[in-house]
Amino acid sequence: MNSDSSRLFGASLFVSSAGMLLSYKLLLTRNVSRVTRTLTTASNNSGAINNKVPQAIPKAVPSTVAKDCDTCACEDKPNDMIGSMKNYDRHVVICVSPGSDNEWLNDIGLQAETFPYSLNRSIETLVKAAKKAKSAAIAAESTAEASIAVSIEPKKALSVKVTAMVLAPEDPVVANAAKILVYPDNLAFDLFPEQVSSFAELVMQPLPLKESLQIKNFTHSAPWFGAKKLMLVCVHNARDKRCGAKGPELITNLEAYLQEPDIMYSDDSSATLTNSNSDMAYVSSPTKKSTDFAIVRGSSHIGGHVYAGTMIVYPEGRWYGRVSKQNVPALLKCIGENKVYSECLRGCTSSEVLQW
Fold first, then answer.
1. Which H or E element spans position 42?
2. Residue 355: burial class (beta carbons within 10 Å; 0-12, 13-18, 19+)
3. CB neighbours of residue 304 within 10 Å
4. How many other β-carbons are positioned within 10 Å of the β-carbon of residue 135?
């Protein structure tokens, strides 16, 4: 190889080596750039995640139609039940024989062809007439069309709640008659089938029943139970399985704890509870045991089965929900002392017409 050829070969080899070095450097630069961008993006995303406001995890809402209560955690919820009951002026409680709750349909109003459930239809008819009269009176002041047969003042039309209560075997009954409890009047009536319509007119009057001239037509007295309180627990299984399951369970727990000797009346004489519309006056006494202040009975649908176990305490008309074995002792202690158990409180009945 001559000198010119050698120089040409050396120059080519240098150029080739330089090209390879340049390509390697370019490739290395690109890879470093990619890695840098990747790390930068990951860092930015990490910062965004760390700085992101945590989203609240939605709580499971219980189905309105529960198949069972095995997984229900109602008693673990905070008290969001205040105001969950509808106000009414008067409550008419139809007392039925033991075991009758097994015959209840979805709505006891559907059994209106049968005495004593027929009272429910008679009252509903008058309530609808009263509402219609009230609307007519507001629209056209007082007219002949704005009055109804039972002489209810249109602007004082009552809201009357009607439910059924299952009697215990020891509760007294009168042949061919039905026991009817009425609150806030705190009276018990022996109602016969032929008196249903006239009795419906009586309870629709916007005044304490003891002041009504019609009351003399009905056999009545203070409630037959000597206890101060009546605890009505919803057990209406045909209406909702939650009440069908938790209601009887709650009754068992209430009755069991009512036998505990440490659950007693308040010794504070200022805790005296009276009802001006009642034939009875209730006074606290530190000497009476728990069994002296309450009885427990099963009830048809009262409203709010989503809060099972749910109950009403009379004569004061306090509503409670999500009552379980765990909070029964505290609830009974408050009831026995004429206090409100706020953890399970749904509301208190009030009326612009009658005194509760």
1. helix 3-51
2. exposed
3. 20
4. 13
The residue length of the chain stands at 356
In the chain, where the domains are located:
74-348
Residue 320 carries which side chain, given as an amino acid letter? Y
Fold of 74-348: Glutaredoxin (3.40.30)
pLDDT at 68: 41
**Joined tokens for residue 184:** 């806030």
pTM (2 decimals)?
A: 0.70
Q: In whole angstroms, what is the distance from residue 314 CA to residue 316 CA?
A: 5
- Count of helix runs (H) and strand runs (E) in the chain: 5, 12
The pLDDT value given to residue 331: 96
What's the rounded Cα separation, in Å, for the pair 109 and 164?
10
- What is the amino acid identity at position 204? M
- Predicted confidence at residue 321, as pLDDT, reads 97
pLDDT at 148 over 80: no
Closest-CA residue to 224 (of 186, 177, 266, 195): 186
Angle at 312 between CA 335 and CA 72, to 5 degrees: 100
Report whether pLDDT(121) > 50.
yes
Instruction: Give the pair of three-digit tokens for residue 182.
Output: 């009425």
Q: How far apart are CA 243 and CA 235, in angstroms?
A: 5
- Average pLDDT value for the chain: 77
The 10s digit of each residue's pLDDT in 82-111 is 999 999 999 999 999 999 999 999 999 999
Tokens of 54: 């945590």
Residue among 82, 94, 72 at smallest CA distance from 243: 72
* Cβ neighbour number for residue 207 with a 10 Å cutoff: 14
